[in-house]
Design a protein that fits this description.
326 residues; single chain; four-stranded antiparallel beta sheet; 26% strand; 10 strands; 2 domains; Chemotaxis protein chec; alpha+beta
Length: 326
């Protein structure tokens, strides 16, 4: 804190200035620090909330890396490069005039967000999907995508954002549904010019091609979950959601669909007889126990019957195989 002068000291200082004993330049005055605040660019989010947003979308970057690597059968690396809050006008001004804008409808927020994918990334994806090496083979100089390119990008990014709810499930039930593709940012109006939005910039590498993907979250989408984005709340939610790995595996296995086939019997006939088959002909089959197959492997034997008016099989015998617990 600066020293406060007494009235006697002030009088002595003024006298020295008037007599020339002291020059005004010799007197140092500590200026009060002033922080500039732009009311047109209101900062709505704290650093803590932005860090929570970054942690959430780091998981999304990993999910996208795994999914695109499998779909494109190529080296894919996606990492977060920047998380910041800007005005919607600044976001639009920062992206190319011709680019790929994937618009998603977000429920239950009743708002929309957009994923901007730079052309070098978009066409590297298209090149791989069409059997190429992932090079940038085209551009958007003509101002539009072909119908085939639009459909391919729609399928890739709509399925990518089916995983978006996974990264939010411990905080909020969010569902992002692909809605449209736009190539001109000027035709896209998701928020007012001076509204604050959160941008998450992903540095994306596909094969030898490197570019950026930018996710824009308008305030309308983020506002309902702001109270849950504090570090303490975020970690407490993660701890509550932490379940043993064995239980998690069992939950995932419960949703797996396995084909089960009850085979009544088999018959072998010459091709000449097969060609001359007519309506009313009877083919004899081997009789005996019905074989119940699970994923093409015979695991049970049983007898045919009816259950509540439907065909059914009564299991009489379980066929054990080495290494099975059945």
């Amino acid at each position: 804190m600066a020293e406060v002068l007494s009235q006697q000291e002030i009088d002595a200082l003024l006298f020295a200035l008037n007599t020339g004993e002291l020059q005004a330049s010799d007197v140092s005055i500590e200026k009060e620090k002033v922080k500039v605040y732009d009311f047109k660019r209101a900062m709505r989010y704290s650093k803590e909330q932005l860090r929570s947003i970054m942690r959430i979308h780091e998981n999304f970057a990993r999910l996208m890396t795994s999914y695109l690597s499998a779909q494109l059968r190529s080296y894919v690396q996606i990492e977060i490069d920047l998380v910041d809050q800007v005005t919607y006008h600044e976001f639009i001004a920062s992206i190319p005039s011709r680019t790929i804008l994937n618009v998603f409808d977000v429920k239950p927020m009743d708002g929309k967000m957009v994923m901007e994918v730079n052309p070098q990334v978009s066409f590297a994806v298209l090149e791989r999907l069409l059997g190429g090496h992932g090079e940038n083979y085209s551009d958007l100089n003509n101002g539009s995508l072909t119908e085939i390119e639009t459909v391919l990008l729609q399928k890739i990014f709509s399925r990518t954002f089916e995983m978006y709810s996974e990264i939010w499930k411990n905080i909020e039930n969010i569902n992002a549904k692909w809605e449209a593709i736009e190539t001109n940012p000027q035709f896209l109006q998701l928020a007012s010019t001076n509204d604050t939005v959160i941008i998450i910039v992903f540095r994306t590498t596909i094969g030898e091609t490197t570019g950026r993907m930018t996710l824009c979250l308008p305030h309308l989408i983020v506002e309902p979950v702001l109270p849950k984005l504090s570090t303490q709340q975020w970690f407490s939610t993660m701890v509550k959601a932490n379940i043993p790995q064995q239980d998690m595996l069992m939950q995932n296995l419960d949703t797996v669909h396995i084909p089960v086939i009850a085979e009544l019997g088999r018959a072998t006939i010459p091709v000449s007889d097969l060609i001359h088959l007519q309506i009313g002909d009877v083919i004899g089959i081997d009789t005996g126990k019905i074989q119940v197959k699970v994923d093409q492997l015979t695991r049970f034997l049983g007898n045919p019957g009816l259950q509540k008016g439907r065909y059914a099989v009564q299991i009489d015998q379980v066929i054990d195989t080495e290494g099975d617990d059945l």
